[in-house]
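Example (one chain per record):
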Amino acid sequence: MAEEKLRYSDEELKEFQQLIADKLDRARKELNYIKETLSRRNDSGTDNTAGTLKLLEDGADTAEKESFTQLAARQQKFIQQLENAMARIKNGTYGICVDSGKLIPKERLRAVPHTQHSIEAKLNRKD
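Predicted structure:
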């Protein structure tokens, strides 16, 4: 009977490292795009002087800026989670469920490479 693996091999970790590096690259580009869009929105909008219409546009602008700001915050959190996953690869704890101590299946890690929980552990959490 084969014993249960306690960690992924260096070769397997390299696959996940590349997957995470690609996702990090894309996530950082998206964050830069969001920041540039926010910056452009902040630069424009001072040349309109048409009373009520201006108030409506300001309201829409504010809502849109808030939406972009929330998007940027989510993207920064995602980047941080990916960077943390890279650190776990380096220290040898990547792919190990923090709740059960068992290996998280590769399929789950490929879908959510920054996860620290197996599906079972995630479903059992009450948060």
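Caption: The two ends are 37 Å apart (CA to CA).
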